[in-house]
Amino acid sequence: MEVDQSENFPVASVLLPKALRAPVGIIYQVVRTAADIADEGDWSAAERHARLADFRAGLDAVAERRAAPVHPLLFGKLAGVVAQYKLPLAPFYDLLRACAQDIDSRRYADRAALLDYCRHSANPVGHLMLHLVGAATPENLADADAICTASQLISFWLEVADDWKNDRLYLPLADLKRFGVTEAQIAQGLADDAWRALMAHEVSFVRSTLVRGAPLALRIPGRLGFELCGAVHGGLRFLERIERAGYNVFRERLELNTFDWCVVAARTVVMWLSRRVGVAARSIEGNA
């Protein structure tokens, strides 16, 4: 699955059903435009909030079936997708809330606060995809939340150093205190015993969350379900790489190499053909 690293949003890939590529592309443009307002450019926080308010007015126009006062072409395309696929607008408003949070929030007090951020910034993506394929059942939505949240947290763990340079930290402050890790250590890129204990704790939580949502991939038919299997195993492989690097995510950004992708592909095929997920995290990820 090809994913925009800022928004965890799937863009056109060879496995994405052809009929979905155009609507997914339009939704991605909407999400990317809002995210750029929050993150890009030299605007002040007040200017960013004002622009997000204008963007919200565009969503309101879609909801009220009238011309948008801003980005009329983009919102016009979105209105067509919303009408054709009967998409709810709540996920878009959730994403806007996350963009506003990006402007003001640089730290998260505890895991609950961080998961609440993920609920607005990552989980709406899964909801929109399920609505696009007519599979937005309560069970599927819950599993999609687990996959999307885990995927975003994995991205955070991989980008601790880069986020720190932008004065952002997506590790719960309560966990830092619990394991005796200070922000000064993060600034120094110090992967000592305390850091490794902290990251082992975070990785364990993310792994169990990802595995909990994995059954969704076997309930979604066709290429999209197969791609979800790949997303699950890609995430699990990244967690393995973090562990094998001794949780040192400061030295360099960990990436999957050719061998890793072969492992991901093999596990994806096995999961898809066997129609089995496994009952424990280790049983699904193996030891390759």
Automatic annotation (TrEMBL):
SUPFAM superfamilies: Terpenoid synthases (SSF48576). InterPro entries: HSQ_synthase_HpnC (IPR017827), Isoprenoid_synthase_dom_sf (IPR008949), Squ/phyt_synthse (IPR002060), Trans_IPPS_HH (IPR033904). One of its GO terms (molecular function) is geranylgeranyl diphosphate synthase activity. NCBIfam families: HpnC. It comes from the Bacteria. Coiled coil: none annotated. This is Squalene synthase HpnC. The lineage of its organism: Bacteria, Pseudomonadati, Pseudomonadota, Betaproteobacteria, Burkholderiales. Gene3D superfamilies: Farnesyl Diphosphate Synthase. GO terms for biological process: terpenoid biosynthetic process. Pfam families: SQS_PSY.
